[in-house]
Amino acid sequence: MWAMNTNQPSLFQTITKWFVPIAAIIAFAAWMYISPEGALGKLDAIGYAVCHRIDARSFQIDDRQLPLCARCTGEFYAAGIALLFQLFVSGKRSKLPSRGIIAVLILFFLAFGIDGGNSYLYLLKQTSGGAFEGIPNLYIPNNTLRLFTGSGMGIALAAVLYPIVNQSIWRELDERPALEWKNFSVLVALVILVNLLILTDSLFVLYPIAYLSALGTLALLVLVFTILWIIIMKQDNTFDHPRQLWLPLASGLTLALLLVLSIDLLRLQLTGTWSGFPGLSG
């Protein structure tokens, strides 16, 4: 009697391999159609799904705001750089950083929360007044602090997400920490250097940062949805080579684009503008 071939793909898997790329193309085409014209317009549409995009709280390219506000720019460009950095220096390492590095990441998170809360209170006092006038701000918020606290948060997100992705994907795990003190210090120094370059307002810096921040946003969404897809399909720890990940990544991209598209359409319907929320400034 012939043994059953357990490696034969199921009908569902075969259908999925055809459906996901088609769905990805449709989602991408729909998003391209509704988003503003031009390369920066497409980047704006990504930022539009996750950021308030208040003009006064954003860096400018010739009086044109970047796709994300200063805080989100820092957060998502730093997350993108941190993910790429770990991809090259850490490979399949799947262990979370040491307690010492985690403590630093918690400080980054607290700084992000404190500065964000203080900034939000300042915005409420400017737009609503009333009861908020009696609550003192810790300090006057500014885009420099937003950039640095946002980039710290971006590092923290990537430092936690990267090893979790590896833990979910690979059949054989490298049990070493994805970030150790030496590489972590280099990453932080690199982000600080980029932040200082951003503050020069040089077009040669801001144009690449516009792309990095928007694509960093999309990369985080894709990774999260890729892991979700792998869990739903019960494919945890079944992959041996990056080329085997094309279907989960395509699925993650499709879901990410559908989320961005849905939020863009909803916000555009509510506000009627691709700019920041009407009535909010400062």
Question: How do the helices and strands line up, and which of them pair or pack?
Answer:
Layout: H1 11-34, H2 39-48, E1 60-61, E2 64-65, H3 70-89, E3 93-95, H4 99-127, H5 143-169, E4 174-177, H6 181-198, H7 203-232, H8 246-271
Helix pairs in contact: 1-8, 2-7, 3-5, 3-6, 3-7, 4-5, 5-6, 5-7, 7-8
Distance between the termini: 77 Å
Largest sheet, described in full?
A: 2 strands, antiparallel
The total count of strands amounts to 4
Tally of discrete structural domains: 1
Radius of gyration over all CA atoms, rounded: 21 Å
- Helical/strand content category: mainly alpha
What value does the average pLDDT take? Answer: 89
Task: Give a written overview of the molecule.
By secondary structure, the protein is mainly alpha-helical. The protein has one domain. It is 65% helix and 4% strand. The protein is built from 8 helices and 4 strands; from the N terminus they run H-H-E-E-H-E-H-H-E-H-H-H. It has helices at residues 11-34, 39-48, 70-89, 99-127, 143-169, 181-198, 203-232, 246-271; strands at residues 60-61, 64-65, 93-95, 174-177. A hairpin with a 2-residue loop joins strand 1 and strand 2. The relative contact order is 0.17. The model is unreliable at 1-6 (pLDDT under 50).
